[in-house]
Design goal:
The complex is a heterotrimer. By secondary structure, chain A is an all-alpha fold. In chain A, 74% of the residues lie in helices and 1% in strands. In chain A, a hairpin with an 8-residue loop joins β1 and β2. By secondary structure, chain B is α+β, with helices and mostly antiparallel strands. In chain B, 48% of the residues lie in helices and 15% in strands. In chain B, a hairpin with a 2-residue loop joins β4 and β5. In chain B, α9 packs antiparallel against α10. The radius of gyration of chain B is 23 Å and the shape is globular. Chain C is mainly α. Chain C folds into 2 domains: 59 residues, no CATH class; 210 residues, Orthogonal Bundle (MetI-like fold). Chain C contains 15 helices and no strands. Classes of the chains: A mainly alpha, B alpha+beta, C mainly alpha. Chains in contact: A-B, A-C, B-C.
Chain lengths: 305, 425, 301
């Protein structure tokens, strides 16, 4: 019976009532704690608010003008870009290689999965703290290890070296994020048609070719999805930079997130800090949307195949 | 009209509501049993918190009509939390805060602190004159200084003796001594500046010795520009030391803890920091330690420092008497000796230190500060308790930039002046 | 189609099947290749786990040892750091606060998301699409956008510095993803079940509670684990919305320890261990749910 196209009015009414009821909590939370403050954010960006005075002065676009002419904004943004580019590429490559490696040995993969995923479940604070120890110039293991293998010349101040600080923090983030990528790819690799891989091996394709031309296309949707997540997250990175360098030394490793936070909560420049936060939003949302669309399109193509 | 009201209401909801009106004559509670709220920033040593709580219990047992509720706030949040609460009328009755025009002074200007001038004269509180001055604004004494801090250089006497070095009498001596220490394979001076706040002390000690307290006064009052040659040269001292290899490599990568560890283990001969570390130094250094001011170009220099924090009463408190009793409890001779022995505080009033359990190092520090406080010496200033957050931010980042050579001392000095002017608006 | 959230046990069986079917007895060259790959993996795994090893080593050193050689591996043994972190360092309080922040908000997220997910997946009502995308907006927009104004809003609502306030914020940050996640689960369930239940005389509410919801219990489980982990590890929310020390959880407690002027790498390490131990235990016990949660979440995202 094709009843599902002609549900009785009673059922429809009941469904409407229940639907609204069940959706209500989510909606209320969203409106009160998300939409309303988002609106306030726009208000904050056009006033000069110090967090205390309840009637702050309206300053029009002054915050925006300041933001576009503030050299530190461009500097922080360039750090974000570096973070996004390297912080996306490196975990993808490393994660994919390790996932393929685990997949290809098959035995013990459960244990490997456990070991490699662990970094991702640790809180950013903890990761930041322990890696700060590793980077400690006097006692930390990085310099120690370098010294032990005779590479003293490579020893550095790492987190205190303005030209290296950002990259040091980034390396730590890559360590943690690769974990996530590995597990995702492992799961996706299970769906890869191993016959194709074997066939290509018989045909004489080497490991590299097999990887790029056979395996990769089969996991492309997952690949793109990871790409989206990393790209979007790259503009709002905060925790780990804040813990390891606080944006320093002397703003060398400042990113938009830490800059916004320090302006708002350490210097009490709420208006300016909010404006910077809005910049983060404006930058990341289009990427999220665009890549989401791209991913949907590719998923549809997959189904077509 | 309705729309405007609604919008105004909505906007005030955004910003958190209007503060209660000016509290001129706040009606006082007269109940027999009163509870006062006491807010402090987190003590650096968690063990101190336990001691403070015990001290409060002792006060309560001696004053049975008063109970004290202790609120401990992370030290970097104290300013915001306090300001918010005081302005909304929900502040603590008593609180610890930084003395100085940028902090207590700001509260005083906003009418948020209780005028203690009468309490001082009524109770004959024995605070040193110079300390009283630093908590007086617009002719009103609004706070009670907790402790004196000095910032200078701890140095490893054993290493100095071994290398035949005498206590440096001027900047030139210091540099020469450092060079000799470096040649012997030891790091002359350890500078930790990863955390940032050390920068304020680094600048303060060199600058105070160079221009003296008068010069520091002038700088903090705006009479002297932060762009001046002495500020530039003080910043340059650190860059110069760093370039000459007289400091540990990469100071901005070294945390406060790591830096101290280097001193304790003998890897570094000198550690520029404050008297608050004295207890730790006693515990961990297996060698004799001395404490001297950072030398001036032309003389032995003066300690920077003076007041650490102070204790204040909220202007809108309903329990002023109880609060004043609580403060008075902390100003007795007995309490002073307790603070010296247990918290390693240097009280801001004369305390007889005979027979107190303290090591030679700390006794020396106590004596020095007493002399200075009683007028036979000079104290420089710790800049960071006397200026605004924005100025400090510029200063801390500036010193880091000088140490990493990201910026020249001239550039940083200019930034300091700009920051100073901005904060005066 | 994208990866379905199937039970991993089935997958592992397939793996083994495949290896039995497609790999003959490996030739010596292949064996060597396999061994090399294992060696590489083991080395990489050890490097990956090194930071955790470092934490454990540092926790159990004597304070004197830490003063002179803070990071030497396992050079002494003492429980002192744990004790002092737990008592003087207040980490026992922080642990309790972390629990008080993570558990209620996780329960709230699962409850609200399940309800909303069902509504959006299976109950036609006016405005459904609009409301759905509104809730989903939270996925697109980074927390940074509204975190500053939210601070002042909570302040004026009297919720700043309260467990309730912080829990509400944590709940909010979880329901965008949670709703999306549960909706995907519900939309895969066959309509026939619904019809059958209706024929049997169940009300719509009963259909939801007795028929449909139990079928998504694995999804709810995965969501719960995922949300709990996120909230336990959350740093920004307590940093901003619990500024005084009263309800400080482990993450901000650790951060407080790193500032300041005392030499306490030992207790700090102990605090770190206290923070990650529940998470690691949870992970080891429930690793299927954890990884499934992350994977499905990411894949469906």
């Amino acid at each position: 019976m094709a009843r599902h196209h002609h549900a009785p009015a009673v059922t429809r009414r009941a469904q409407t009532r229940l639907g609204l009821l069940l959706a209500l909590p989510a909606l209320i939370m969203t409106v009160v704690f998300f939409l309303f403050p988002m609106g306030s954010a726009l208000y904050f960006s056009v006033v000069d608010f110090d967090g205390i005075d309840p009637t702050p002065e309206f300053v029009g676009f002054a915050n925006y003008t300041e933001m576009f002419t503030d050299p530190e904004v461009w500097h922080a943004l360039s750090n974000n870009v570096i973070w996004i580019v390297i912080g996306t590429a490196a975990p993808m490559v490393i994660g994919l290689l390790i996932a393929v490696l685990i997949w290809s040995v098959q035995r013990g993969s459960v244990i490997y999965r456990l070991a490699f995923f662990l970094p991702f479940i640790l809180p950013g604070v903890v990761i930041g703290i322990v890696w700060t120890w590793i980077y400690d110039p006097a006692n930390g293991w990085l310099n120690r290890a370098l010294g032990a293998i005779g590479l003293e010349s490579l020893q550095r101040g790492w987190l205190g070296d303005p030209s290296l600080a950002l990259y040091a923090v980034l390396a730590t983030a890559i360590w943690a994020y690769s974990a996530f990528v590995i597990v995702i790819f492992l799961s996706a690799l299970r769906n890869v048609d191993i016959e194709l891989v074997d066939a290509s091996r018989i045909d004489g394709a080497n490991a590299g070719n097999r990887l790029i031309h056979i395996i990769l296309p089969q996991i492309m949707p997952v690949f793109l999805m990871v790409l989206t997540l990393t790209l979007v997250g790259g503009f709002s990175v905060f925790d780990i930079v804040f813990i390891m360098t606080g944006g320093g030394p002397a703003d060398a490793s400042n990113v938009l997130g830490t800059y916004s936070y320090t302006q708002a909560f350490q210097l009490s420049r709420i208006g300016y800090g909010t404006t910077l936060a809005l910049l983060i939003t404006v930058l990341s949302v289009p990427f999220a949307v665009a890549l989401n669309r791209l991913q949907r399109r590719m998923a549809l193509q997959e189904t077509g195949v | 009209m309705l729309f405007v009201t609604a919008a105004a209401l909505a906007l005030s909801a955004c910003t958190g509501g209007a503060p209660s009106g000016e509290a001129e004559n706040v009606p006082q509670e007269t109940a027999a049993q009163q509870e006062i709220r006491y807010m402090i920033g987190q003590p650096e040593d968690p063990a101190d918190l336990k001691l403070i709580k015990e001290d409060i219990k002792k006060f309560e047992s001696e004053n049975t009509g008063i109970t004290v509720k202790l609120d401990v706030v992370p030290s970097e949040n104290v300013r915001t939390v306090l300001q918010t609460q005081l302005r909304s009328g929900e502040g603590p009755d008593v609180f610890g805060y930084d003395t100085g025009p940028g902090f207590a002074g700001a509260l005083a200007r906003a009418g948020l602190v209780y005028d203690l001038t009468k309490a001082y004269s009524d109770n004959n509180w024995p605070i040193y004159d110079f300390a009283k001055e630093r908590v007086t604004f617009d002719g009103k004494i609004v706070g009670v200084p907790n402790q004196i801090e000095e910032v200078g250089i701890f140095y490893n006497k054993d290493i100095f003796t071994k290398l035949g070095l005498a206590q440096p009498q001027n900047l030139g001596d210091l540099k020469a001594a450092a060079q000799k220490i470096k040649d012997s394979g030891v790091t002359p001076m350890v500078v930790s500046d990863k955390d940032g706040w050390q920068g304020g002390h680094l600048l303060s000690i060199v600058l105070s010795s160079d221009v003296g307290s008068d010069g520091m006064d002038a700088l903090l009052n705006g009479e002297k520009s932060w762009d001046s040659p002495e500020v530039v040269s003080s910043l340059a001292v650190w860059q110069d030391f760093q370039k000459s290899g007289l400091l540990n490599p990469s100071p901005t990568a070294v945390t406060y803890d790591s830096g101290n560890a280097m001193f304790y283990s003998g890897k570094a001969a000198m550690n520029p920091t404050g008297s608050w570390l004295a207890l730790d130094v006693e515990r961990n250094a297996k060698f004799e330690v001395g404490f001297i001011p950072f030398p001036a170009p032309d003389g032995p220099g003066i300690f920077s420092g003076g007041l650490g924090s102070g204790i204040f009463i909220s202007a809108t408190t309903k329990k002023a008497d109880a609060a004043i009793k609580f403060i008075g409890y902390g100003l007795t001779e007995e309490h002073g000796r307790w603070a010296v022995e247990n918290l390693q505080d240097i009280p801001a009033y004369p305390v007889n230190t005979d027979g107190i359990e303290a090591t030679p190092l700390f006794k020396q520090i106590l004596d020095d500060s007493a002399k200075i406080a009683e007028g036979t010496g000079d104290f420089g200033y710790n800049i960071d308790v006397l200026t605004t957050d924005a100025f400090n931010n510029t200063m801390w980042k500036g010193v880091q930039a000088v140490l990493t050579e990201q910026k020249t001392p001239e550039k940083v000095a200019k930034e300091l002046q700009t920051a100073y002017e901005k904060s005066k608006k | 189609m994208l990866d379905q959230p199937t039970i991993p046990q089935a997958q592992t069986a397939t793996e083994d099947d495949r290896s039995a079917v497609t790999h003959r007895r490996p030739s010596p060259r292949k064996r060597a290749g396999l061994a090399v790959r294992h060696v590489i993996l083991v080395v990489l795994a050890l490097l990956t786990l090194f930071p955790v090893v470092l934490i454990i080593s540092t926790v159990f050193k004597t304070p004197a040892d830490i003063r002179t050689d803070p990071f030497g591996l396992f050079t002494s043994f003492s429980m002192e750091n744990l004790v002092s972190a737990w008592t003087v360092g207040r980490f026992s309080d922080y642990l309790l606060n972390s629990i008080l922040l993570s558990v209620p908000s996780t329960l709230a997220v699962v409850a609200i998301s399940t309800m909303a997910g069902y509504a959006f997946a299976r109950l036609p009502f006016p405005g459904r699409t609009v409301i759905f995308y509104t809730v989903l907006l939270g996925l697109l927009v980074p927390f940074f956008t509204y975190m500053i104004p939210l601070y002042f809003q909570l302040r004026s609502m009297g919720l700043l510095d309260t467990l309730v306030g912080a829990n509400l914020v944590l709940t909010l940050t979880g329901i965008a993803f949670g709703t999306f996640f549960m909706r995907a689960f519900f939309s895969e369930l066959p309509e026939e079940l619904e019809q059958a239940a209706r024929v049997d005389g169940c009300s719509e509410l009963q259909i939801f509670l007795r028929v449909m919801m139990p079928l998504t219990s694995s999804g709810m489980g995965a969501l719960a684990v995922f949300t709990f982990l996120s909230n336990w590890n959350n740093f920004l929310v307590p940093l901003l919305y619990l500024p005084s020390g009263d309800y400080r959880p482990l993450t901000t407690g650790l951060y407080m320890f790193t500032g300041g002027r005392s030499l306490d790498i030992g207790p700090l390490a102990a605090g770190t261990l206290i923070t990650i131990l529940p998470v690691i235990v949870l992970f080891l016990l429930l690793q299927r749910q954890v990884t499934q949660g992350f994977i499905s979440g990411a894949v469906k995202g």
